[in-house]
Amino acid sequence: MGNLDSLVTKSALAAIMAIGVVSLAGQSYRAPRGPDGKPNLNGIWQALNEANYDVEGHMARPAMALVPGHSSPVPAAPVLALGAVGAVPPSLGVVEGGEIPYKPEALAIKKQNQQDWLNRDPEIKCYLPGVPRATYMPYPFQIIQSASALTFVYEYAGAVRNIYFKNPGPAPNDSWMGQSVGHWEGETLVIDVTDMNDRTWFDRAGNFHSDKLHVVERYTRTSPDVISYEATIEDPDVFTRPWKISMPLYRRQEKNAQLLDFKCVEFVEELLYGPYRKHPIPK
């Protein structure tokens, strides 16, 4: 029995050591290098979570647009016919600490946004998504990296971000996608995003910001097909302190993976301009 016990003990130690080596290897993963010697982030990536519904943790509910029912909220009339297709899936959330630190007056606005989601959510009208929302919308995006340039191209609405590595100074105007200035910290691409307007949301749940929004993103490849994504969000007009979201981004694996056209502006023309037709289409 002594030899058997010794054999089992050695096998267990070997297994533990193997797990430790795998764990250590995962922690010390070194991404392939680009022509400039920096980590190569080229590829088509996508988040697989429910953050676009609500970055905070939430239970499943029958719709984004709800009205009071006899015993519980029910879908509003405009979305009732969607049935389960219009339901909101549950999520543990991506906000570190679980809750966005709103100022009391800002939290009241967030609740108003949620109640009037059909009229207020910029995604419904195909407005550009802003940062960080562009990262975790249910569409892929592509990172195009060379020795001299870095560009993010998003399938949703054809949004594009060019990343500066030399700070050009303040942007002439605020914009939907803001101005992005990047630098490398070892294996991590850090992007400082400023000069965004106040018209984008973080999700469909009405989480919002002002034009004082400042986002610092961190992209770190942790395996051949995974990027660890973090975004620290600061807005002194809306939040009591900076807060952070984090999630993995996954490489699309199809052999013919590519971004396709989803230029949704034409899809919402009737919604936005239909009432102004000379002969409006009957509802």
Please describe what this structure looks like:
The protein has a domain at 43-57 and 92-254. Strand 5 (150-154) and strand 6 (160-164) form a beta hairpin. Helices cover 18% and strands 23% of the residues. It has helices at 2-27, 104-115, 117-120, 133-136, 269-273; strands at 43-47, 66-67, 74-75, 141-145, 150-154, 160-164, 179-185, 188-194, 214-223, 226-234, 243-251. By secondary structure, the protein is α+β, with helices and mostly antiparallel strands. The longest helix has 26 residues, at 2-27. A nine-stranded mixed barrel has the order 1-4-5-6-7-8-9-10-11. A two-stranded antiparallel ribbon has the order 2-3. The model is unreliable at 16-26 (pLDDT under 50).
Task: Describe how the helices and strands are arranged.
Elements: H1 2-27, E1 43-47, E2 66-67, E3 74-75, H2 104-115, H3 117-120, H4 133-136, E4 141-145, E5 150-154, E6 160-164, E7 179-185, E8 188-194, E9 214-223, E10 226-234, E11 243-251, H5 269-273
Parallel strand pairs: 6-7
Antiparallel strand pairs: 1-4, 1-11, 2-3, 4-5, 5-6, 7-8, 8-9, 9-10, 10-11
